[in-house]
Amino acid sequence: MNEQHERMSDVALTEETVLQALESVLDPEVPVSIRQLGLIQGVHLDEDEVSVALVPTMLACPGREVIAEEIRQRLSQLAGERRVVVTWETRVIWTPRRITASGRQQLQRWGVVAREPTPHGVRCPYCGSYQTRLNNAFGAAVCKAQFSCSICGSAFDVLRGALRPAPAEATSQSGDGDGSVHD
Ligand SMILES: [Zn+2]
Prior knowledge:
Layout: H1 15-22, E1 40-45, E2 49-54, H2 63-79, E3 83-88, H3 101-109, E4 112-113, E5 132-136, E6 144-149, E7 155-159, H4 160-163
Parallel strand pairs: 2-3, 4-7
Antiparallel strand pairs: 1-2, 5-6, 6-7
Bound molecules: zinc ion.
């Protein structure tokens, strides 16, 4: 093995530096940082391990594996000798309220709605009308649903976690090895 990754000193490894590093890990379906999306539930450091607990926006989200791998890669240098462990807190329910203000703005720019529907329904991000309807339950991706607006004709995506915050379905979707829970 060569020494091409210069290890950062242990002093540099804090919860905050880990969080900062995770700032550059984007959700595979919307180009917004997982930190801004509120996916990070906690970071824990000890002598042998850096563990990151995440909350999925939807239990069966296929992006989970991609995100976990990104995190491991992103943190491998910072973590030095420590193992990087990614876990999913499936008991915690992600809601759009976890998204930061900046994350929300970024989503809006991509035409993705990440708010809980009001009693009037889902609001069009372009014209503000509530006269919207669900086009396709599976939208552009499993985690998003595509809506269209009858007033301005725009199509937009709504993060599915925003529509159904508590799907209590099993995680049996795509077999094991999808980075679900490590110990
Ligand atoms: Zn509209």
